[in-house]
Amino acid sequence: MADQLNDLPQPDNDHFEALNEAAKIMPYQTAGFKQQLQQFMAQPTDVNLERRFASALLNMSFYVPVQVRQKAMTSKEPTAHLGMGMAVITYLADGQRYIPAFTERSEAHRFLVGSFPEIDFRMFEFTSEELMIEVGQLKIAGLLVNPGIHNFPLSTSYWNYIHRVRPLPVTNSQADFQFRLLGEQSVQLEVALSRAMRRYGKIKRAWLFGVRYKNKTTIYDRALVVDWQGDDEQFRTKVEPKLAIVAHRHQRYGTDFLIGTTTEFIGREVEAEFDPFYTRRGGFQK
Length: 286
Known about the structure:
The protein is an alpha+beta fold. The protein is built from nine helices and 13 strands. It has two domains: 13-162, no CATH class; 167-279.
């Protein structure tokens, strides 16, 4: 259960004690995210700015105010235990309720200290499901990034949107598509995907390549084909989303990332044409 800390007032800055010099140094990643956020907020219809912002967001972690307290015994929980509640605030601009999320711990302190002295902060990666699971359980709108500064709502629908997985096109002919290797531009992505795929023993091989519709676009989307030796439903629901998150962090602006297996037509064509960048060398099966 989460504490409902609604309509939190913003304390006066006099309540905020100066942090040490090290804590005042803004990490490059946070500074870059703030820049992308401000640009996207200024021009929310610009597709390129939106893609840059989404890419930065997928690499971000946020400080969320929490309160740890002892929970009473119930029929379902016969022993006393500690529980963690997340703060919930109401954003007056739209009247919706959100979990406040801060890019810097100092900003969270400025917003909350003095009003709720027992509040602590926990860091969550945006790509983790913990925050959005909590949002769903509380039946609220989502996250509010840097309340009092940027006041940017991140809804569950937007979270789902940038975590989407686009499948390979369904086709029975290579005539509609053109493939190419990605070369050195994909090395970092290959390393990141290889690291992730080592957790899944049922992925035996993998190919990374560029694909485009011949008569519709000149832009090559990045695509991943894996030789998956397991249940298709498990791959689609458990493995594919995890690989998509890894890929989105390295995604180029203006392109999509497609995922498929060697059971599909394009997967079989790529398997025959290219060498895999990843080959399983035994180990733990998952």
